[in-house]
Amino acid sequence: MNIPENLRYAASHEWILVEGDTGTVGITDHAQAELTDIVFAEPPAMGKTVKAGDVAAVVESVKAASDIYSPVSGEVIERNEAIEADPALLNTDPFGQGWIYKIRLSDPAELSALNDAAGYRAQIGG
Amino acid sequence: MVEFAGWEMPVQYTGILQEHKAVREACGVFDISHMGEFFVKGPDATAWLDALLTNSVSRLPVGQAQYSLMLNERGGVIDDLIVYRLAEDRFLLIVNASMIEKDAAWMRSHLSGNVEFENRSDAFAALAIQGPHSAEVFEKIFHRPMPTERNRVEEIKPSRSYIATTGYTGEDGFEWLVPASEAANAWNAALAAGAVPCGLGARDTLRLEMGYPLNGSDLSPDRTPLEAGLGFFVDLKKTAFTGRDILLDQKATILPHRLCAIRVIDKAPPVRPHYKVYVNGEPVSETTSGALSPSLGYGIAMAYLPPAYCDIGQEVEIEVRDRRFRAVIVKKPFYKKQP
Predict the structure, then answer these.
(1) Which partner for B91 in A100, A115, B40, B323 could form a disulfide, CB atoms 3.0-4.6 Å apart?
(2) Is position B330 within any domain?
(3) Residues 6+ apart with CB under 8 A from B92
(4) Any idea what DSSP says for residue B294?
(5) Residue B164 belongs to a domain with what CATH number?
(6) B28 with B161, same domain?
(7) What is the CATH number of the domain that holds B263?
């Protein structure tokens, strides 16, 4: 199971890559494997403000819909339109082309509540 | 794995989309051991089944299979099933897993004449081998060509093993009943012959693309087979069968609802069962089945609608998470088999 060292992880299986005051959010390799074939993805609207733990996006596999929770609070500043056209990117490249949105962090201190790679690996029993 | 009618069943082995594609383009194998097997025999077996089921059992030739429905007194569907005529006075019925006990109780409570009824569901395992390459798989397993005729049934070993060219996917293929103790051997033989293991998920998307109803979703004790669009499998010329009066009545007046096939036009999340259907801005019904069709790439669904809204081309909307998406009534099946 791929769990990059440079990311932070929410217990609900989202990752965030922080660069300055912005973060890129996606779902983990473990999450995409559990969800299986993702056939629909809806990143959040530009400018939407979310609190940590809010539903920010939705992805759906053939069998089920899953909410994607924002790991941090802030404002959505970019949405990945590529996953709307090709939702399977979430399966094939969850940490790369399958990213979901970028967010301007309103409270960087929230990052300390997230797991590092080792913590997340322990959480999923990997 | 999920619990399904008391069975632990895999939703998928490798992935629903991949398994679905295997059945449409090559060959897949489904473990359908959960389904029920009833045996009916005796001099009055034909007449008894004709009184319980909608289709004409007396007109079913020996060695043939027939789709049929068992109705309650209100004309509602208890179960849909396949009747296999093994001999003049001997039948195999394959029924839905979730309905085995109810079906058996209903049939026992309606026993009449010189008829023997046996529920042998626990004694059998069954595989459905489906897809355009099924004949090759058949030949590897049985060392002879697959019967070309659809809906043929053969008793390979009397009261132990059967093959029938039936299925629930719209593709060529066959179903294979074996004693429960031989399930693993049969499964392995199918895999060795090139069939791809397929789970409940692909079984559902495949049948929905064909517009085949699923009991408990698209069929219910409150809906008649005429409402479900299954009039082809109802022989109203038979003098009597349970529910017939209601059906005659519906035929003479008007159907309160019809099960319609709906194609989603907008790019939308997958439609699932129990999503609201709107016409002219008003909620009028809800979906009974729905999926993003893997073969077609758009959303498909079924819903019972008032007859005024059932014309092909009628525009409707389906609500997904508080948003409505445009859709249209289309003809069944959604998917047409590739020539």
Answers:
(1) B40
(2) yes
(3) B37, B38, B39, B83, B84, B86, B153, B162
(4) T
(5) 3.30.1360.120
(6) yes
(7) 2.40.30.110
Q: Would residue B84 count as lying in a domain?
A: yes
Mean pLDDT along residues B194-205? 97
B233 found inside a domain: no
Residue A62 lies in domain = 8-105
Name the residue in chain A with its Cα closest to that of B2: A63
At residue B4, the pLDDT reads 82
User: CA of A38: which chain B residue's CA is closest?
Assistant: B17
State how far the Cα of B201 lies from the Cα of B179, in Å rounded to an integer. Answer: 25
pLDDT of B196 strictly over 70: yes
Token pair for B153: 């049934």
Of B313, B321, B317, the closest CA to residue B286 belongs to B317
CA–CA distance, B87 with B146 (Å, rounded to integer):
21
Nearest beta carbon to residue B15 from set A36, A40, A42? A36
Q: Does residue B292 share a domain with residue B198? A: no
**In this structure, what token pair is assigned to residue B303?**
């819903």
**Number of domains present in the structure of chain A:** 1
Say if B104 is an interface residue toward chain A (CB within 8 Å). Answer: no
Task: For chain A, say whether B17 makes contact (Cβ under 8 Å).
Answer: yes
B239 inside domain: no
Does residue B84 sit in the same domain as residue B199? yes
Q: Which residues pair with A103 in a beta bridge?
A: A23, A76
| Beta bridge partners of residue A19, listed in sequence order | A22
Model pLDDT, residue A126? 66
- Residue A73 belongs to domain with CATH number: 2.40.50.100
B185: helix, strand or coil: helix
* Tokens describing residue B49: 């089944």
pLDDT for the residue numbered B5:
80
Range of the domain at B134: 2-209
Cβ neighbours of A87 in B, within 8 Å: none
- DSSP code, position A111: G
Measured between CA atoms, the residue of chain A closest to residue B293 is A62
Do the Cβ atoms of B329 and B259 come closer than 8 Å? no
Give the domain-ending residue among B142, B175, B209. B209
* pLDDT tens track for B5-46: 888 888 999 999 999 999 999 999 999 999 999 999 999 999
Please name the helix (run of DSSP H) or strand (run of DSSP E) that holds residue A19, with its range, or none: strand A14-19
For residue range B229-274, list pLDDT tens digits in order: 999 999 999 999 999 999 999 999 999 999 999 999 999 999 999 9
Q: Contact B187/B119 with Cβ under 8 angstroms? A: no
| Same domain? B205 vs B268 | no
* B12 touching chain A per CB within 8 A: yes
